[in-house]
Amino acid sequence: xxxxxxxxxxxxxxxxxxxxxxxxxxxxxxxxxxxxxxxxxxxxxxxxxxxxxxxxxxxxxxxxxxxxxxxxxxxxxxxxxxxxxxxxxxxxxxxxxxxxxxxxxxxxxxxxxxxxxxxxxxxxxxxxxxxxxxxxxxxxxxxxxxxxxxxxxxxxxxxxxxxxxxxxxxxxxxxxxxxxxxxxxxxxxxxxxxxxxxxxxxxxxxxxxxxxxxxxxxxxxxxxxxxxxxxxxxxxxxxxxxxxxxxxxxxxxxxxxxxxxxxxxxxxxxxxxxxxxxxxxxxxxxxxxxxxxxxxxxxxxxxxxxxxxxxxxxxxxxxxxxxxxxxxxxxxxxxxxxxxxxxxxxxxxxxxxxxxxxxxxxxxxxxxxxxxxxxxxxxxxxxxxxxxxxxxxxxxxxx
Length: 399
Hints:
Elements: H1 13-19, E1 57-59, E2 64-70, H2 76-95, E3 101-107, H3 112-124, E4 129-131, H4 138-148, E5 152-155, E6 167-169, H5 174-187, E7 192-198, H6 201-216, E8 220-227, H7 231-239, E9 247-250, H8 254-266, E10 275-278, H9 285-288, E11 297-300, H10 303-317, H11 325-341, H12 349-352, E12 358-360, E13 363-367, E14 373-375, E15 378-383, E16 386-391
Keywords: Amino-acid transport, Signal, Transport
Pfam families: Peripla_BP_6
InterPro entries: BCAA_transport (IPR051010), Leu-bd (IPR028081), Peripla_BP_I (IPR028082)
C-alpha cells in the first residue's frame, strides 16, 4: 500500500490493511449492539465538574504528538467505555508497524470543564490533533481551544449538531443508517414509506434524515407519527394510514422496539405485509427474539470487522471491548497512517475530508466538510438467533 509498511506480524497483515487501508488522492484500496448513542447520554450520570481527575499518560515515543481525551474517571458505564477505548487506542499503536506517534492520554471526567482542561493540557504539550471528547456537551468546550490554534479535532459524539469547521465526528451517526436503509429499500422497489419514531432527540434526527432521503430517492411518505410514553395511541393513529405504505421505519432500541411492534399489532396492523426498516439500534438480541420483527431490515456495520477486532482485544486485555472501542482504534490508526504518508499536511482539512475516505474496523468512512461523516454500511435481516447480511458494505464511495 502506498507509503504503508506491513504490520508487525504476518498474522495481522489482513487486519492492518482493513484498519488503515487508506489511499489519499487515489481510489481507496483498503479493505451493533446499541452502537449508536441516543443524543442524551447513554452512559448514565456524569460526575460534577469538580470530580475531574486528570489521568495523564503518554503512550508511544513518536515525534507526532496526538491528544486523546476520554472520560476515564467518569462514573458508571462512561468510565468503563473510556477505559475500553483507551485500550483500543493503545492496541492500534501496537499493531501499527513503527508508528511515529505519541499519544497524550487525558481524562476529561465526562464534563465540558474537564474536556476543556484536558484539551488545554494536550495542546500545551504539543498535540497536533485531538481525538475525543466522547460526549456531545464536551465537544464545543474543547473545540474552542482547538479552533483558536487551527488544530483539527476528531470527536466521538453521535450528535451531528456539534460537528463543524475543524471538528470531525468519527462515530455512528443515525443519518448514515437512514440513508443506507432507505436507499436499499428504494433499490429493491419500495416507493411508499411510513415511519413511527420516538419523540426524543434521536427520533428527531432520524425524522429529518428520513424525510430528506425519501425525497431524494423518488419515494413518498404515506404516514408519519411519533410516540412518547403512550405507544398504543400513536400506533392507533398511524394504523389506518399504513394501508398506503409498503415500508415502515422503526427506530428505537430492543425493548422499546418490541413494545412498538406489539402496539402496532394490537392496533390491527399486519406487519407481515410491510417491509420493516430500522437503524443500527436494531442490532440487539431483544430484536432478534421478537417474532413480529423477523424479516426486518436494518443498516449497520459489517459485523465481521468487530468480531476480528474483539478476538484480538480479548487476547490482549482478557475481556470484551465495548462497541465504541473501534472508534478509538480507527482514530489512532488513521492519525498514525497520516503521520507517515502526509508530511506537514497530515491533519489538514483537505487531507481529512478526502472523498475517497478511509477503511476502518467497521468499514469505509469519510469526513464531510461540515464535520459529519458518511459510513459504508451493510444491510442486515433480522432472523432468529441473530442477523443475516443481505447487502454487503460498499468497497468504495461514489462521487
